[in-house]
Amino acid sequence: MNAEISFDDSQNGHLEEAEVLELYRANQWSAADKPAALMAALQNSHSLVCARIDGRLVGLGNALSDGHLVVYYPHLLVHPDFQGRGIGRQLMQAMQARYAGFHQQMLTADGRAIEFYRALGFERAGKTEPMWIYAGTDH
Q1: How far apart are CA 47 and CA 62, in angstroms?
Q2: Does the residue 129 lie in any domain?
């Protein structure tokens, strides 16, 4: 059962709110508590990549970018029932291929995600300290 990985270049044209919310809730991400904002955020991403198995949305990732030098990857989710099958790696590799050659590719990782991203070539950014103003509840 292979996942079909594709960019949604139609700016959210193929994503249904219900399937997005199911994915975010399955991962216990608080963004699901703000469905209108979440859908608008995904729609306004520079890139959005989706993974589907038999038409079911099982993963997605998005990027925010200036289109030339810097890209930030805020979301990468795989449904818990499909984790450990390489889907997250495929999604991230698709994004990294799209932004290859950029001066800076950035993300924030915690927990198990740290080793996942290290395996994809990411490393701590020098002596930087992650900082944020956060309205969620899941970290």
Answers
A1: 6
A2: no
As a whole number of angstroms, the distance between CA 122 and CA 27 comes to: 22
Does the pTM exceed 0.85? yes
The answer to the question of residue 10 being in a domain is yes
Tokens for 20, please give them. Answer: 């997005």
Can you count the helices (H) and strands (E) in the chain? 4, 5
pLDDT digits (tens, 9 = 90+) for 83-126: 999 999 999 999 999 999 999 999 999 888 999 999 999 999 88
Instruction: Give dist(CA 96, CA 16) in Å, integer.
Output: 25
CATH of the domain at 85: 3.40.630.30
DSSP state letter for 4: E
Q: At what angle do helices 17-26 and 35-43 cross, to 10 degrees?
A: 110
Q: Sort residue 28 into left (φ over 0), alpha (ψ -120 to 50) or beta.
A: left
Task: Give the structural domain span for 76.
Answer: 4-119
Look at the chain and report how many structural domains it folds into. 1
